[in-house]
């Protein structure tokens, strides 16, 4: 089995017991204090120049996503076009970071995005439930990478995690990472809504990073509770502490439920005041979202013109 | 912390508050000049701008106000509790309506960030009046026997750190129980109390029930010593508290005192570290540390000291010091030049006694009274900064080895107002809380306040409790 | 104690040497001084120790030493011990009736009623030990995700200036509420009638009450009081037996470390005692702890 944990943490992954001891030895999280901190950062007032900066940054961090059973090549091409030029009325608008699709749409997306810097991300590993045998999951990943995916968004086996089989989760992440090789960056999705507690989310974050995650990601967008400021704050604290301990920097991606400019800016404030400017870049922070983009565009138009915009002045996809 | 993401200024508008060029004393429902015509200026500590000129009460004014309160007492105390309740409910509602105005005013006069006046002071002020309003017609059920009686005229002297909140803590229970009030706000923060006088007018409160005397310590002393005052309530320094305790000796005056503190914030090695760091920051930098229950002594288990200090320093580097009216300001101005000098001198003592001083990079505005968030390490129980209340944004860091030692060090103080405990182990929380000699113990949180929650100290932090059912006792003849 | 019954016997009675009760032991005054105690008609009853400020100091040390254990004992245990005091007194009722009659110039039957009331007072406070916290403490419904509980705690070492006239019922009425809640006491007995107090020490010593919880000094309140009122390791003072001049002096001295002061008031020791003598020496401690939700569910933006 490949091991991706940095030398400093190699002992922690030596056995299931060792891994449990390590993960359960991480500092606990008091939910009320965590939520209060997230809420307090949510009261930051981001105005004028700071708002303009934040809106463009947020646009550039979006993994513009379509993950529907009804996805078609036409839908994916439309999304790709929007990713490259989010606002047809204003070509100074930055492109999004990536489009995010199912593996069978990777080739279509890749083709549509040719010549742009926009990446193709693909969910894999039997997304969103992750309930398939490992060889099937790995084949899913292999397919997507072969089709040209720049990034793979995998889901962890929440069942194994909740049953306490941490080594199994770890080894699966490591195996997926091996499939990605140096072709694709790996995002590890925890489905935080199913892990339920913040302590679990912190443990999963470390497990993901030790397994080789390039990004850790809150959720699939397919369950009731997706990205929230507090659960994203837990991820941010984890990448901050992980870098301090190992020297390795890992990105963060909240996904699902972030729909307004106001929300997006709150997340950027969390990034700014928890991990700082080293993460204020789409190489290290992403938003997994779809409807968020139009709200950012309308707010951007408002800042530029002084008028409130409306839905007819941004594109539907 | 320098960042690509610079927050643009986001100032709250000053235009919501209209400060008159001068104010009189509020006696018997009227604004009047001081008998000797004296006035003093109140300035904004963040800019040194003069905000207004207010009357300076002297002995004659104190006498006039006490007489007005005495005259009003008969009718006020005879009102059915349900009627007194409605006045207090009215006041609570008007405070809510005018809370933005009052928050801006408090920030201007006190120097604390608008974030705090808006999100902490004002909501608590309104809540306090709501809470005690409900008690006014339920005193028979408060556990002090049937039909408990008010004391009479309450002389109340409050500090400058939470001007309107301390006013609420004093006036709400006093009126609910049927007493009348003469209140003296601190000389550096008279304005919100004067606006409160206007709220009493809007609420139709009978004349003389609340009287506000702006002035200095001499007026406070005259109020405390006035022979027709039945109740003395004081929040402020321990030194003045002791003077008051001596003054009332041999009289029938009932006294409650909320005085100084040197709260220990104890962090065990199994603490929720990120929340503990927030709690430490909140404990000592909330209101620039000008808080009697501040967690000014950090007691950290030696085994995690380095790790915790790294986290704490990183966190302090994100604090935003500056214009108190800016909605993103975390650290505002020190309340007065005098207080700044006191903090400065104590911090210098800390250095002179060999403690190691650290502050984040932090540019202080050129006008006004400012002090950078400061942390002292290598502090022991023997250091002045571990014993004396600094009342400023200065944290002394000490270490301990075992729970026993933590408790012994925490209790090794003349004060006993507040303490904090950070650990994920439930039994340890209860065991340590049980042993701490402090009136308020925050476990895995800090600096939380609520009108239903009794507040007050052990030992030289004073006596009596404010808030909750307990807060009624100080205003009842029981 | 006088010689009696010489008609039937020539036996000399055995006098009792009255001693202080400090730290569970029965020392003489370190000063070596005694003073004469007489009955209401001026007849000599005994010599009592004339305690000094050093005796008072020793008593504070003993009271402080006993505080941790006594305040940490379960309320049930304290109740058992207070009840035991009543049991022991009941057994020595005749002795106390005699001493009270001598001390206060009462008839046997009136003295008997006083002693009965004093015994009943111990029973009353024995029952309070595990109830007072439920009466004066409780959960506070704060507006936030926090559990918040107020509990009463003993303030510490309490100096008690015992009533001068009511040498036994008054004495018991001021000691019992102090220790029922877990405080420890340094008691200055009635100056002119200290014998029932000194005998009470003997009862306390045989009632499972840990040494130092109650310390009884005889002598002059005006001599010891100022030292105890100014003592920095005393937390509170009950001025029940101080006259108005002394009470004012002691209250001023007590301000040095902000002792809790219970001023002298109208004293009808046979009346329902209420709870105020207990609450006067209780602190309220309020502990907060976050509650929050069970899981990281949908926190709103």
TrEMBL record, chain A:
Pathway the protein contributes to: Carbohydrate degradation; 2-deoxy-D-ribose 1-phosphate degradation; D-glyceraldehyde 3-phosphate and acetaldehyde from 2-deoxy-alpha-D-ribose 1-phosphate: step 2/2
UniProt-listed InterPro entries: Aldolase_TIM, DeoC, DeoC/FbaB/LacD_aldolase
Pfam family, one: DeoC
GO molecular function ontology, one term from the record: deoxyribose-phosphate aldolase activity
Class of this enzyme: lyase
Gene3D superfamilies cross-referenced by the UniProt entry: Aldolase class I
Keywords assigned by UniProt, alphabetized: Lyase, Schiff base
Superkingdom of the source species: Bacteria
CDD domains according to UniProt: DeoC
Catalyzed reactions: 2-deoxy-D-ribose 5-phosphate = D-glyceraldehyde 3-phosphate + acetaldehyde
E.C. numbers: 4.1.2.4
NCBIfam families: deoC (TIGR00126)
Annotated family: Belongs to the DeoC/FbaB aldolase family. DeoC type 2 subfamily.
Name assigned to this protein: Deoxyribose-phosphate aldolase
Organism, as annotated: Streptomyces noboritoensis
Source taxonomy: Bacteria, Bacillati, Actinomycetota, Actinomycetes, Kitasatosporales
Gene that specifies this protein: deoC
